From TrEMBL:
Tagged with keyword Nucleus: no
Lineage of the species this protein comes from: Bacteria, Bacillati, Bacillota, Clostridia, Halanaerobiales
UniProt record, GO biological process: methylation; siroheme biosynthetic process
Protein name, entry field: uroporphyrinogen-III C-methyltransferase
Top-rank taxon, per record: Bacteria
KW Flavoprotein (keyword) present: no
Keywords assigned by UniProt, alphabetized: Methyltransferase, Porphyrin biosynthesis, S-adenosyl-L-methionine, Transferase
């Protein structure tokens, strides 16, 4: 029996990927095909399942990838093939989003569909601009108007005389190009020239810009600021509240363009922390974490775990791959019952705790030298057998220090770090000054970024960029390759790196 298709008309929210609904996110993850608009945040597309098809149907002024009729036919045809199609629209699909037209076509064709409401830019963008649309002491009504229609045409769907007399808040969507005409109509029908006005461009995103004025001067102010679509126009006394309620544009990393070089599957934590502080995050996965070339050496050590006095984990990846292989060998954490465990760093210890294990030793400073010397202080290492499951081609310093203390050390490749997918436009972003900060979380991220930038000089490309490193070892690698370092995290963790960036820009 042929699989029955279905279409979800999903509102993706106004731009901040965190504003999509839980149901909307589930629809993205379930879809066989995503049909998405120009203003949908690309970060949401990372949530698609493997094999899902992405179809861009974005529209901009004087350029439509597909006409609305073609989009309608696309949704119907793909659903008839038995696909689950998620139509991802900016904002809410039923508020100036033409979702109603698409739903009508689906209903006419007998296609099963659902509408998943989204947070419309009409309410979210003013909120991110520090402007409440209603306020008990100021107004009790709000009106949403399309600004796309020419206000001066003879037959208009907008009752300008009524709007001009309205004492509540007016919100115009898609109206930047018509701003002079909108202002002219409001003044013509008696709106006060002193009425406050705000235009908010790229609302809810790190690129957000806001211009405020009054009806008599807002056109000139917007022209001087070169505000272009997309932008929301807010007219009303509530605009005055922005002076005290501007919470988004005052975030400590607001508008800072920060490059993340971590592996794609690990970038999420750092990306989320930076975005929550207002940064514009650019992800360039310079590394990829993969299994070792051969599991046999690790499997042999796992079978002889009882012979070791200590197991030392130097990274979260080491813990994850070791545990994966432990379980693959038919064992569980009880195999570590008589073994003491040390970790470099609180993040590694936290990952260990996810498996029900607590580290016996964590050095105060999260570097190999501190772990070796600290371990020697709390126990006699002479003759002690130590297992270090870690990355292939890792630094030898830890092993050397432990051997100097008399330990018998087995280091075994538990995973390997290879070249990541990178970012095709990366060199151009550097040349155009689109990157303000580069973050490095390991020496591998440094070396691989240098490879992506080749044949350009690594140091030259980073010349006008702030370089932030998670620790001194990573910083030394930057310097060895001819780069400079502006800051090193005091605590060598992702959280410590973010805190150092906040202090740097304070």
């Amino acid at each position: 029996m042929k699989k029955k298709g279905k279409v979800y008309l999903v509102g993706a929210g106004p731009g901040d990927p965190g504003l999509i609904t839980v149901k909307g996110l589930n629809c993205i993850r379930e879809a066989d095909m995503i049909v998405y608009d120009r203003l949908v945040n690309p970060l949401l597309l990372r949530e698609v399942k493997d094999g899902a098809e992405l179809k861009y149907v974005g529209k901009s002024v004087n350029h439509h990838t597909l006409s609305q009729n073609e989009i309608n036919r696309l949704l119907v045809n793909e659903a008839l093939k038995g696909k689950i199609v998620t139509r991802l629209k900016c904002g809410d699909p039923f508020i100036f989003g033409r979702g109603g037209e698409e739903a009508e076509e689906l209903a006419k064709a007998g296609i099963d569909f659902e509408v998943v409401p989204g947070i419309t830019s009409a309410i979210a963008v003013p909120a991110y601009g520090g402007i409440p649309l209603t306020h008990r002491e100021i107004n009790s009504t709000v009106t949403f108007i399309t600004g796309h229609e020419d206000p001066l045409k003879e037959e208009t769907a907008v009752d300008w005389e009524h709007l001009a007399k309205e004492k509540g808040t007016l919100v115009f969507l898609m109206g930047v190009g018509n701003l002079p005409k909108i202002v002219k109509q409001l003044l013509k029908y008696g709106h006060s020239p002193e009425t406050p006005v705000a235009l908010i461009q790229w609302g809810t995103r790190p690129e957000q810009r806001t211009v405020t004025g009054k009806l008599t001067n807002i056109v000139e102010k917007v022209r001087e600021a070169r505000i272009t679509p997309p932008a929301i126009i807010v007219v009303g006394e509530v605009v005055r509240l922005r002076e005290n309620l501007n919470w988004f544009e005052t975030k400590p990393l607001f508008k800072k363009r920060i490059l993340i070089t971590r592996a794609r599957h690990q970038a999420g934590e750092l990306s989320c922390l930076l975005q929550n502080l207002g940064a514009k995050v650019i992800e360039c996965p310079t590394i990829k974490i993969t299994p070792p070339k051969d599991w046999k050496p690790l499997d042999e050590r796992i079978k002889r775990l009882s012979e070791y006095q200590w197991v030392i984990f130097t990274s979260v990846n080491g813990v994850e791959y070791f545990m994966h292989r432990l379980f693959a060998n038919g064992l569980d954490v009880r195999a570590l019952g008589n073994v003491r465990i040390a970790t470099i760093g609180s993040a590694t210890a936290k990952k260990l705790k996810d498996y029900g294990l607590i580290a016996d030793f964590i050095p105060d400073k999260f570097i190999a030298e501190e772990l070796a010397s600290g371990l020697a202080e709390i126990t006699d290492l002479k003759g002690a057998k130590i297992l270090i499951p870690r990355a292939a081609s890792a630094r030898v310093l830890l092993v050397e220090k432990l051997k100097e203390a008399g330990a018998k050390v087995d280091e075994v490749a538990t995973y390997q770090t290879v070249l990541g997918d990178g970012l095709k436009e990366l060199p151009m972003l550097f040349k155009k000054g689109k990157i303000q900060v580069v973050t490095f979380t390991s020496s591998s991220t440094v070396r691989n970024l240098a490879e992506f930038l080749y044949p350009q000089s690594f140091g030259q490309m980073l010349k006008n960029v702030i370089v932030a490193c998670i620790g001194p070892i990573t910083a030394n690698t930057v310097k060895e390759l001819g780069g400079h370092v502006d800051l090193i995290a005091m605590e060598h963790t992702i959280t410590g790196l973010v805190e150092s960036l906040v202090r740097y820009f304070a």
